[in-house]
Amino acid sequence: MVNRILIRIKVLQIVYAFYQNENSDMQKAEKELLFSLQKAYDLYLYLLILPLAVTNLYERVTDKRKRRYMPSQEDMNPDTRLVNNRFTALLSQNEALWQKVAENSLSWENDTDFIKTILDILLASDLYAEYLQNPDDSFETDREFWRAFFKQYICGNEIVETCFEDKSLYWNDDIDIVETFVLKTFKRFDASAESGGELLPMFKDEDDREFAVALFRQTILHGQEYRKRIDKHLKNWETERVAFMDMIIMQVAVAEIMTFPSIPVNVSFNEYIDAAKYYSTPKSGTFINGVLNSIVQELKSEHLLFKN
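Above: the chain sequence. Below: its structure as tokens.
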């Protein structure tokens, strides 16, 4: 689940913090990097169990209404399609999910107000009304309802983003990308598969974990060397005038370009230029592209650029 786009973002954040801290400890920073990646996976798990928390609250609310002193016909006969949703039933039976949730002590139990807000949004939505009227009563319909609800009402929702930002500072920049992984997991779930299917692993493979650690280490250990190269190509610019984040982005980019022969140069360019647009100034992308292109040409002329 933690792909290389997210890894690059985390490395940029940790390298930035490393240089901001006067008493920098590389070993502690590396642990912080791995911890922040684990927190991104925790966010993925939190979002996966959100439909279950919403469904459980709906079931409690409808049960409470039935026990009113003078319940109405609607109270006594609530629509049970949400409670009987086959997708959430299968999700609730996924042992791997609950094992990871338990290992990381994750729960929505103390967030009743937030879950109620999401439930209210769901019940008032046109999507829910259409779901109740849909004659196709199948697992696929149940799954697609939740996938569509997430896509339309959870992704990009300020209430959701605020909730997660309050829960952890690590999640400020993770929400958008992790939400895409949740949607992908929903789509992969299949009624014919055991427990619905497999969750996305924290890392696609061991190579991705090694990539995260190696990129951070190379960026710091060869930082002076990379900074000298960058300084040489800052045409008409004084180093002090360059945005600090731009320098960090270029340093990490040069580390990647010089260290990982299997990653094409254009891939590295695109990733760090995109990061610059998000984390630095509006003109940073063009500026960084120009500097990195000059560095790559120099590395080629010195026969120091090795790509598979």
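The CA atoms of residues 299 and 305 lie 5 Å apart.
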